[in-house]
Design brief:
With 281 residues, the chain is α+β, with helices and mostly antiparallel strands. The chain is built from ten helices and five strands; from the N terminus they run E-H-H-H-E-E-H-H-H-H-H-H-E-E-H. The N and C termini lie far apart (92 Å).
Length: 281
């Protein structure tokens, strides 16, 4: 498929707070990231991976920008979910449940997603830090900001400070590559200055506790805890049979039961009540 048909430059963003959300501690991009997927799914996954965080990756929006129909896209996204790149769910913020779509270029297994739901993400960092990888890739975004290995290592702590303030890779890249002077004489000095002067404010955190999250079954959309999902699907959708009900146990001998009165005694009792009320049969 031609690259022009998969251009991510004009893909719209979702409403604030929604859309694609990249998970942390992903490996650097490579040409084999989605080689384990069928060709169509690999192309769609590569397209989503190139989109900015916050991009609208709903089926309807993807169908407007990719040469596939909504039915084909739903099938493809289900397969992408099964391989561990995508999860949809909900997250509780300030008492409100917000729909989320989490994306990971690095394929994750069910155990990793279960830890992610608990807010206990396994910190399996790549050999090169997240900050170093971003700085080394700046030259591909804007050639004027190409940095050396030593410069990337020296600037990485400043980028890490952005990450501690909830900035994304896209936030840092935009700050370092947009509105550049012409020409750029010292890219490392310019990067250092911008990282310092454009540093975001510290986020206001109301509680130091993990977020409340629920993931959804990729097939039926039912909310569930991640440890109950298999390849992103709930038990019934994954082909697991529901557990059979346990047989009713026989009550023990000392169990109290409501006594059963003889029929004659019941009739006599009813007749006495009617007599008191002046009613005769």
């Amino acid at each position: 498929m031609a690259d022009a048909e998969f251009s991510a430059e004009l893909h719209p963003l979702a409403n604030p707070g929604y859309g694609k959300r990249s998970t942390p501690y992903q490996l650097p991009p490579s040409s084999t990231d989605f080689a384990h997927l069928p060709p169509r799914e690999a192309a769609i996954a590569a397209y989503i991976d190139r989109l900015l965080d916050g991009s609208d990756i709903s089926v309807k929006m993807l169908a407007k920008h990719l040469p596939y129909g909504q039915c084909a896209l739903r099938t493809a996204l289900t397969r992408i979910t099964r391989t561990g790149h995508l999860r949809r769910g909900r997250e509780c913020l300030d008492g409100l449940w917000i729909t989320r779509t989490w994306w990971s270029r690095t394929a994750r297994d069910d155990a990793w997603w279960a830890a992610f739901q608990r807010g206990d993400v396994p910190k399996q960092k790549p050999t090169r830090s997240r900050a170093y990888v971003l700085l080394a890739a700046l030259g591909r975004t804007n050639s004027a900001m190409s940095l050396s290995h030593a410069e990337c290592q020296a600037l990485a702590p400043l980028v890490n400070e952005w990450f501690t303030r909830d900035a994304t890779e896209d936030d840092v890249t935009r700050a370092l590559t947009t509105g550049l002077p012409t020409p750029v004489h010292h890219p490392a000095a310019l990067a250092r200055k911008r990282l310092a002067t454009k540093l975001p404010p510290e986020p206001i955190r109301r509680r130091d506790r993990p977020p409340l999250r629920l993931l959804e079954c990729a097939k039926c959309g039912a909310p569930a805890y991640a440890h109950l999902l298999r390849d992103g699907e709930c038990g019934p959708c994954h082909g697991e049979s529901a557990p059979t009900a346990a047989p009713t146990a026989t009550p023990p001998p000392n169990t109290r039961r409501t006594p059963v009165l003889p029929a004659a005694r019941v009739r006599a009792h009813a007749a006495a009540i009617r007599a008191r009320e002046g009613t005769h049969t």
